[in-house]
């Protein structure tokens, strides 16, 4: 085992891998996964869980016969199920001498950079002290349009936040198939992906069970985020014996997503810009600026900005477009929209406007991350 390379492991477990078909926690499924996670802990790994299952574990006790679809019922079910889930995890880990902790987050916690960094500090303290943090979206209080929406992309974002060495997504399927296996029983398993191309995206379909949420589509979105953050990830079947241990050691059946070493490796600030910030406006830049700034990595100068959309302050994240409206990237601007407008109006001479519109380390090129946001 290579301890140094695989020290910090993030594991996402889907609803169907934790609950029975009748809307209850499956003690047997949970016990099996906890036992395998304990084996990693005993080997010295730090482990963070992103666990789904709050709605699936709670709807029956709320009096619903199947997983509710209306928001208030789902939120009420999550309020019951989340407590039960954490209680079960805590008991099972405690039997092996480990402590579990609960972290519930909403998208707005991450869109504020200070709160984002604060979450990281908290999780790092827990991991450093051997605790197993268990993350879920705060389903009970989050409105649909403010949601991360699925725990697949949430797990990749949290893995990036804490600089995990690996992300394992455990599901009810043993990997990515070249077609949705629900629709084509002859679909073939893909063992390794080094780049998420449109062909790979086209393979992914929706959820397979009545409790699953994002299906393979949100998992591919998650792997895109993980790869852009330089994290190797895996998807495999939660019920397979020793899946956790074997996946960490790259011997499990499933699909591994391995980032290209020369590819993008967004640091934490760039991850925040790309996945969490939410741009506040747009700047349109001319063709020679796209070439100079993006391709040749030169400075982005004020006279390259031909148009500004929206109202934003200095320090805001903005979307950069070319003059044909194509997305060029996202980044933090050194001037407000007001200053840009004045500069363009007053013959390019505004006091205080200096040379650089955006620092390179505050720019993320070319990636459009548009994910679904409803559970
Ligand atoms: N190309 C594909 N390869 C594998 N599974 C796929 C594919 N397209 C769609 N799926 C479906 O995605 C399901 C897993 O997602 P989901 O039901 O959301 O599970 P979870 O609760 O673990 O997140 C699989 O059971 C399968 O039915
Ligand atoms: N946050 C929700 C689960 C959202 C989700 O992504 O579910 P799943 O597709 O089962 O991983 C819950 O705990 O019920």
Automatic annotation (TrEMBL):
Pathway(s) per entry: Amino-acid biosynthesis; L-proline biosynthesis; L-glutamate 5-semialdehyde from L-glutamate: step 1/2
Give the SMART domains listed for this entry.
Answer: PUA (SM00359)
Provide the PUA domain boundaries: 281-357
Keyword Amino-acid biosynthesis on this protein?
yes
Membrane-crossing ranges are none
Q: What CDD domains would the database entry show? A: AAK_G5K_ProB, PUA_G5K
Where does it localize? Answer: Cytoplasm
**Gene Ontology terms for molecular function:** glutamate 5-kinase activity
Residues annotated to bind substrate: 52, 139, 151
Q: What is its EC number?
A: 2.7.2.11
Q: Which Pfam families match?
A: AA_kinase (PF00696), PUA (PF01472)
Q: Which reaction does it catalyse?
A: L-glutamate + ATP = L-glutamyl 5-phosphate + ADP
Keywords of this entry: Amino-acid biosynthesis, ATP-binding, Cytoplasm, Kinase, Nucleotide-binding, Proline biosynthesis, Transferase
Residues that bind ATP, according to the entry? 12, 171-172, 213-219
Chief location:
cytoplasm
Q: InterPro entries from the entry?
A: AceGlu_kinase-like_sf, Asp/Glu/Uridylate_kinase, G5K_ProB, Glu/AcGlu_kinase, Glu_5kinase, Glu_5kinase/COase_Synthase, Glutamate_5-kinase_CS, PUA
Similarity-based family: Belongs to the glutamate 5-kinase family.
**Biological function:** Catalyzes the transfer of a phosphate group to glutamate to form L-glutamate 5-phosphate.
Q: What is this protein identified as?
A: Glutamate 5-kinase
**Species name:** Pontibacillus salicampi
According to the entry, what is the taxonomic lineage of the organism? Bacteria, Bacillati, Bacillota, Bacilli, Bacillales
Q: Which gene encodes it?
A: proB
